[in-house]
Amino acid sequence: MYLVQDKGGAIALMLAALLFLGTWPAVLTLLERRGRLPQHTYLDYSITNLLAAVIIALTLGQIGDSTPEMPNFITQLGQDNWPSTLFAMSGGIVLSLGNLSTQYAWAYVGLSVTEVISSSITVVIGTTLNYFLDDRINRAEILFPGAACFLVAVCLGSAVHSSNAADNTKKLSGSASNSMSKTCNSRDQEVSKNLPDKDEPRDLEDGGLVSGSNINTEKAKVGTAEFLIQLENKRSIKVIGSNTFLGLSIVFFAGICFSLFSPAFNLATNDQWHTLNQGVPHLVVYTAFFYFSSSCFVVGIGLNIYFLYKPVLGLPRSSFTAYLKDWKGRHWALLAGLLCGFGNGFQFMGGQAAGYAAADSVQALPLVSTFWGVVLFGEYRRSSRRTYVLLVSMLFMFVVAVGVLMASSGHRKS
């Protein structure tokens, strides 16, 4: 079994995890903005997310000889370690609920702000729990100021969302070509002529209205009111005129879920509460990650199949047959699952070596997500100066936070 033995290797794994975990949300967001139903996308994502855990377990988890203290992956599957297994699986459940929530929050709040707020909550709560679970191997005088930077980023992220929402309202109300002055307040009949009716049938292949609907296909400039309306017509989740607090509520729920999965995984691999019988070795990181990903897979598949037939947030009803026939963008969804799976695996491998509290530095993934959000989706394009100032301040706090958390890395005693 391959183990990371030094702080440098752990930090390298954290940086790789940061890149992967910051990229996969952008891929799923791209598919939603192109009109693919999130239920279809998440089902594809769940398959390769589990596949990544299996690949890691059967390769890195099987390298070298198995010892009684550090058994290989397959050897450990038959051992009596159910208390630790349940901790790992509970971590996978809350992670799946968090990921499932964010796929809707990205539409309502935007990729950048969603990742900032959820990641900040994860660090503030999760890092504190991991610090004590790890027997305080991280330097508290460095660790907690870093967590405080994430807490500040939560406030800045909420401010960025509110400011950007106000900018979009102003753009829509000032559009000469569309009567959108009441879109964000009353959803009156005049607005419904410009925006698609949620009850109108849609093509489940691309999420748009069925052929024959009157949609302006001329491409608008990114950031303009016309661009926002065209995006609304095309995307699968309709958000213009929605309650601001709806999106933020989804994000905060996701953040709480995310804050619990890493401490649960910590308990699974280190057994701080002494739940295992005497002589039973702790779960190695690869075995714990396999159980973790398996429960994540079951919850993700189960809930999204249910949402096919009982959709939420105004999405059209679908079916498992329609999902199987929907190949548009499937390769991107499968790639997102691999990125997330390997990103989580690298995070846990680094955390086992340098402490899970320090490994929470990968929650600076909004730095990567924001890059993709600006480059791919034109987020904050043509926004106000106030929004730009808040955005830069938010990202600055993340740069400081990730550096501080990595600096707090310790080394777990064997």
Automatic annotation (TrEMBL):
The record's family statement is: Belongs to the plant ureide permease (TC 2.A.7.19) family.
Record flagged with keyword Membrane: yes
Q: Which UniProt keywords apply?
A: ATP-binding, Membrane, Nucleotide-binding, Transmembrane, Transmembrane helix, Transport
The answer to whether UniProt assigns keyword ATP-binding to this entry is: yes
Q: What molecular function terms (GO) are annotated for this protein?
A: allantoin:proton symporter activity; ATP binding; uracil:monoatomic cation symporter activity
Region listing for Disordered, in residue ranges: 165-212
TM region positions: 12-31, 43-61, 81-98, 105-130, 142-161, 244-265, 285-309, 330-349, 355-376, 388-408
Primary subcellular site in the record, as a coarse category: membrane
**Compartments, record wording:** Membrane
Task: Write out the biased-composition intervals (Polar residues).
Answer: 165-184
Instruction: Give the protein's recorded name.
Output: Ureide permease 1-like
* InterPro entries xrefs: UPS_plant, Ureide_permease
PANTHER family in the record, alphabetically? UREIDE PERMEASE 1-RELATED, UREIDE PERMEASE 1-RELATED-RELATED
Bias (Basic and acidic residues) ranges: 185-205
The organism's superkingdom is given as: Eukaryota
Topology within the bilayer: Multi-pass membrane protein
Q: Which terms in the GO cellular component ontology are assigned?
A: membrane
Q: Which organism is it from?
A: Musa balbisiana
